[in-house]
Specification:
Elements: E1 14-15, E2 18-19, E3 25-28, E4 31-34, H1 40-54, H2 58-62, H3 69-85, H4 95-113
Antiparallel strand pairs: 1-2, 3-4
Helix pairs in contact: 1-3, 3-4
Length: 119
């Protein structure tokens, strides 16, 4: 059970004689639901999922010069953006969350293109 009310004022729910546990967050259909209802935790979680999927493909895909940028771009769009944005339609987005997603996306595209950021 997830509650936005302080736990001391929550009436326990009993199901078949067992009281349900009050939790701060849980996963439902792959998305992180928190007691605050903010999307920050889900954005961080999706970024981490995409990051962990990206690294194993560095040597076999991203670092190979014989593969065209078009092929790399299609793989990036199909795999990483779908992992990154999975469930994004229901996230309560803030400007900071959008910026965080854009920064992550741009950083990885730069890595694929082997383009250095100029200060």
């Amino acid at each position: 059970m997830l509650s936005c009310v302080p736990p001391t004022s929550v009436t326990p729910i009993v199901l078949d004689g067992a009281s349900l546990e009050v939790v701060d967050s849980f996963r439902y259909l792959g998305s992180l639901i928190t007691e605050t209802g903010q999307g920050v935790d889900e954005v961080v979680s999706r970024i981490n999922h995409a990051r962990f999927a990206f690294y194993p493909l560095c040597a076999p895909l991203w670092n190979r010069r014989e593969l065209s940028l078009s092929t790399k771009s299609r793989v990036y769009q199909a795999v990483f953006r779908s992992i990154l944005l999975y469930g994004g339609e229901i996230w309560p987005m803030r400007v900071e969350d959008m910026k965080r997603l854009e920064v992550f996306d741009n950083d990885w595209l730069r890595r694929i293109l082997r383009h250095r950021r100029v200060n």
